Amino acid sequence: MKATEVRAKTVDELRTELEGLKKEQFNLRFQKATGQLENTARVRQIRRDIARIQTIMREKRVTANA
């Protein structure tokens, strides 16, 4: 997911996307703990996507309050 794609979404869409990514992150952590995780790179990708969404949500909050 690119930052331009994230910026094009509304805050509600971002919240929904963030919730889905956090659920996926939980499932990946669970798979890792049980030794069933096959795609280890996906953990890093999810973590960065979550950070990207949170950053852009904060930017939108700051510009809305300014």
TrEMBL record:
PROSITE patterns: RIBOSOMAL_L29. Keywords: Ribonucleoprotein, Ribosomal protein. It comes from the Bacteria. It holds the Pfam family Ribosomal_L29. InterPro entries: Ribosomal_protein_uL29 (IPR050063), Ribosomal_uL29 (IPR001854), Ribosomal_uL29_CS (IPR018254), Ribosomal_uL29_sf (IPR036049). One of its GO terms (cellular component) is ribosome. NCBIfam families: L29 (TIGR00012). Belongs to the universal ribosomal protein uL29 family. This is Large ribosomal subunit protein uL29. It comes from Roseibium porphyridii.
